[in-house]
Structures are given as C-alpha cells and as structure tokens.
Amino acid sequence: MNLAAEVSGSLGSIGYGLAAIGPGVGIGLIFGNGVQAMARQPEAAGLVRQNMLLGFALAEALALIGVVMPFVFGV
User: Fold this and answer.
1) What does the alpha-carbon distance between residue 30 and residue 15 come to, in Å, rounded to a whole number?
2) Backbone angles phi, psi at 41, to 5 degrees
3) Which portions of the chain are predicted below pLDDT 70?
4) What pLDDT score does 4 carry?
C-alpha cells in the first residue's frame, strides 16, 4: 500500500488553494492603495483608477493561470 500515491491526487488542488492567497493579497493591496491615492489627490483619480484596474487584471490573470496549471501538469 503506497500512501504517496493515494495523497498525490489532491495535491494540485491544495497547491492552488495556497497559491490563491498571493493574488488575493495583491488585489487587496492594489485597491486599498488606489483608494488612498484617490483620497489624497482627487484630481488624479482617473489615472489612478486606470492603473488600479490594470494591476487588478494582471493579478487576477495570475490567479486564473494558477487554476489551470494543476489540470495541465496533473494529467
């Protein structure tokens, strides 16, 4: 009875669960600092919002890539 073979089936899901913490923290920092920047300089709100949404899209793309990787390398 090989215990490693029984556990390895769900390691990809556990790895993604741990990897999702990074983009979650990153998105929180992006929006938190973006709102703070808009509060400090309201005249730059358009530029800050544009950069904030671009940073969100890139951080979210990392999370979505992390969803796909266990399926790509696990099969």
Assistant:
1) 24
2) -135, 85
3) 1-10, 12, 74-75
4) 55
